[in-house]
Amino acid sequence: MCGRSAPCAALLLLGAQLAAAVEIYTSQVLEAVNGTDVRLKCTFSSFAPVGDALTVTWNFRPRDGGPEQFVFYYHVDPFSPMSGRFKDRVVWDGNPERYDASIMLWKLQFDDNGTYTCQVKNPPDVDGLIGEIRLSVVHTESGRPLFVLAARFSEMHFLALAIGSACALMVMVVIAVVLVQHFRKKRWAESAHKVVEMKPKEEERLNGEKKVSVYLEDTD
């Protein structure tokens, strides 16, 4: 037992602070297209119930350097920046009851490249690591390199060509089967017709031979 000694009290206080640490979860790396909207997702876990004391702070560090900039703040109600690059471009998209502290960033620009930090405090849970998202803003669809569009067109062209070739092959097989069956039926019909024509001729020849034999017998 520690009793009431100062070192034991300090250890208990330190243990309570370590146990009461907010944990932040983010995507860490994110890529989005210039001119579009993006959701900066930030969720958290806390041992303490979420209440009116919860605060969420978003800040931004430009990739090319410079001072940290304020992005967004939440405490009971959302507070958007009144000036700066993020004015009228950031809205609250979180839900504290679901431990969600996400925001939406509208109309991305290339100078939005950088690191966005999400810090959540839920007293008595006030310590913990700050979540980070490294955002990369890429070119729009119409401004992408030509080789990317060419590659996509090539893939679509190849797929269409493969499907067309397969369909053409199937049609050719069907036509070949139909033609073979047609010629077989035609040969069978011609053979049957020849047999029918040969029967009267054969009968006529046999009758003629019989008449000759009868005549010869009468003359004898």
TrEMBL record:
Keyword Signal appears in the UniProt entry: yes
Chief site of localization: membrane
Domain Ig-like per the UniProt entry, residue ranges: 7-136
Top-rank taxon: Eukaryota
Alphabetical list of SUPFAM superfamilies matching this protein: Immunoglobulin
PROSITE patterns registered for this protein in UniProt: IG_LIKE
GO BP annotations listed: cell-cell adhesion
Gene3D superfamilies hit by this protein: Immunoglobulins
KW Nucleotide-binding (keyword) present: no
Secretion signal, residue range per the UniProt entry: 1-21
Annotated membrane topology: Single-pass type I membrane protein
Keywords: Disulfide bond, Glycoprotein, Immunoglobulin domain, Membrane, Signal, Transmembrane, Transmembrane helix
A Pfam match: V-set
Transmembrane regions: 158-180
Compartmental location: Membrane
GO cellular component entries: plasma membrane
InterPro entries named among the record's database cross-references: Ig-like_dom, Ig-like_dom_sf, Ig-like_fold, Ig_sub, Ig_V-set, MPZL2_Ig-like_dom, Myelin_P0-rel
Family stated for the protein in its record: Belongs to the myelin P0 protein family.
PANTHER family hit by this protein: MYELIN P0 RELATED, MYELIN PROTEIN ZERO-LIKE PROTEIN 2
Protein name: Myelin protein zero like 2
Species annotation: Suricata suricatta
